[in-house]
Design a protein that fits this description.
Blueprint lengths: L2 E4 L8 E3 L2 E3 L6 E11 L1 H8 L8 E2 L4 E8 L11 E4 L9 H4 L8 H8 L3 E3 L2 E5 L9 E5 L3 E3 L6 H22 L6 E5 L3 H12 L4 E5 L4 H8 L4 E3 L4 H9 L4 E6 L4 H10 E9 L13 H7 L2 E4 L7 H13 L9 E5 L4 H9 L7 E5 L2
Parallel strand pairs: 5-9, 12-13, 12-15, 13-14, 15-16, 16-17, 18-19
Antiparallel strand pairs: 1-2, 1-5, 3-8, 4-6, 4-10, 4-19, 6-7, 7-11, 8-9
Helix pairs in contact: 4-5, 4-10
């Protein structure tokens, strides 16, 4: 089968290979035929080493498809079932899972970093985040697969696997945004747009989209932002809509020290700053002891939207079914696997009209 392979950490392009096979199916695993895979900035971060990844490895961590085969211990799925794959696969038994923090379960994360999911030309090859959705098929733990109804489009399902649950989950789970709140979102990519939609869905009345790419402002307003500005204009907008007090909730969806600091500064005293962006180890942010004490702003990290995929995939799809989330509209471009490098390159030079690119598999 075909897949897009990262040969070495630091490579700017993936190699398209046709001599790929999946690892042998374990008793608790599922083999999935990929139908749609999303292209995410986290894939770039895996390639350049900003996020943990193993090489050689098949990139891609956002996808949907059909079950092809199930291991002998899997009794609740069958070939033909339509599924979303998730890089968070709760084991159900560890302390994180028992504490209702399934998104912090690292059992299958460690397995994914230590156990190859593929073979390329006979060489053991890993899957990014334990997945590797830039392949025609992949094997994943049963816990990393969520069955969905057959009427959910594969494109919608793929986005729900990462971008949408991360953004919406940050609003609903991590921050618990209250109706009538004021919200600012720094970064208007797929996750940022999802956070904007989540804020609208829960009843936030002021939603300010912040992005240096002016072309993204109209898009953000289409998905629910009441205002849009560049970072340089945020203080003026805050003055206009909050009287200069700052926002109740500010979501940082970039993963840089400077934007985390900006998000904190834009948050009202006693408000909440939510760090959603996946930053590199080199990104640092500094606060004084006095301001942390005096301002009493809460800083909440949000890993994967504090999501339990067993619960929240269905929640997000219910919001989509009732018209509270526009997920079809987030698909900006469709490409084939052969064009994956062009899709990744587009992320280096953001297009104002680009929310999410997806790879479709015939």
């Amino acid at each position: 089968m075909k897949a897009a392979v990262l040969n070495e950490i630091g490579d700017r392009e993936l190699q398209l290979r046709a001599d790929v096979t999946t690892a042998e199916l374990a008793p608790d695993q599922v083999r999935v035929r990929t139908r749609v895979a999303g292209i995410c900035h986290s894939d770039l971060a895996a390639m350049d080493g900003s996020l943990p990844a193993m090489a050689p490895g098949v990139i891609g961590h956002e996808g949907s498809g059909d079950v092809v085969e199930v291991g002998e211990q899997v009794a609740d799925l069958a070939p033909g079932d339509r599924v979303v794959v998730s890089f968070v696969a709760p084991c159900g038994h560890c302390k994180a899972c028992a504490s209702n923090q399934a998104y912090l379960c690292d059992v299958h994360v460690i397995e994914g970093l230590s156990t190859p999911r593929f073979s390329v030309g006979g060489e053991p090859t890993f899957g990014f985040a334990g997945l590797g959705t830039f392949a025609e098929e992949l094997v994943v733990p049963r816990a990393g697969v969520v069955k969905i109804e057959d009427d959910v489009p594969y494109e919608v399902a793929a986005l729900v696997g990462c971008a949408v649950v991360t953004g919406v989950g940050a609003v609903i789970n991590t921050a618990a945004v209250r109706p009538g709140s004021s919200v600012a979102v720094l970064g208007c990519g797929g996750v940022g747009i999802s956070a904007i939609q989540g804020a609208r869905a829960v009843g936030a009345t002021t939603i300010v989209a912040v992005d240096p790419v002016v072309g993204k402002h109209e898009l953000a307003e289409r998905f629910g932002a009441t205002h849009a500005t560049t970072p340089d204009g945020l203080a003026d907008v805050s003055q206009d809509v909050t009287g200069g007090a700052g926002f109740d909730y500010v979501f940082e969806v970039v993963g840089r020290g400077s934007t985390i600091r900006a998000a904190y500064d834009a948050t009202r005293r006693g408000g909440t700053t939510v760090v959603v962006g996946a930053g590199s180890p080199e990104e640092k942010v500094e606060f004084s002891a006095q301001e942390l004490f005096m301002m009493e702003r809460k800083i909440l990290p949000s890993f994967y939207g504090s999501v339990d995929p067993r619960r929240d995939v269905d929640l997000v799809l219910s919001l989509w079914r009732t018209g509270r989330l526009d997920l079809e509209g987030m698909v900006s471009k469709r490409i084939g696997l052969a064009d994956v490098n062009a899709g990744l390159e587009a992320l280096h030079s953001p297009d104002g009209g680009l929310v999410r690119q997806v790879i479709t598999f015939d």
